[in-house]
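Hello support,

Our group uses your service weekly, and this is the first time we've seen a run hang past the timeout. The protein is Thiaminase II. I'm not sure whether the cause is the sequence or the server load. Input pasted verbatim:
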Amino acid sequence: MAETGSSPEAFSAETFSAQTFSAEAWARNAEAYEAIRTMPFNAELAAGTLSPARFRHYIVQDAHYLIGFGRALSLAAAKAPDPDRIVQFARGTETAIVVERALHGGFLRDYGIGPETFAGTPLSPPCDHYVSYLLATAYAEPYEVVLGALLPCFWIYAEVGRDIFARAAPRNPYQAWIDTYAGEDFAAAVAEMIAATDAAAAGAAPALRDRMHRAYTHATRLEWMFWDGAYRDAAWPL
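Update from on-call engineer: The timeout came from a worker crash unrelated to the input. Re-ran successfully.
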């Protein structure tokens, strides 16, 4: 992976060509990804200097987010055009709810956050916005647009994870998080998601492909907002 992590070349070259939706989407949103990569939350996470309070806010909100993300993946499975894609998204749902929440659960225990405290913590404004957007898209939009909205969460997390892994400080207190999103298992899931999205886009009319791009761009913005909200301890004003 390039030092900046600003290109899709972290995945195999066979995954991409200049004509694929994924290559176009990455190029159109490269500036937004760079803003995410270099934002204070991720810079301090890599350095191991991110405050426990900020990471605590993030991990609680991300655990809430994964529930909504899993529901959106389930709806993608329901709309998938063939059995292989149904299985892919059903497995993605399991990963979001079971595997990733196991990682979050370890951090939640470390911070003394039990089930009642977690359940009593409301979704922050950025988390609520992101979950609401994904679920509305998954319910109301066609399969192709749903994949456009879901892809940034997979892809950006993998790229951020790889980038932070390459520059992480020794004995980083957040190493478990870094290792998960920089790992081969997650990279394989991301590559499958990219392939599914490109396959869906390949047969899409230009107007539908444009809607996929709008969904991808909006979800990318929401990725930035989510991390920024954790850094600022975003809460409802009323």
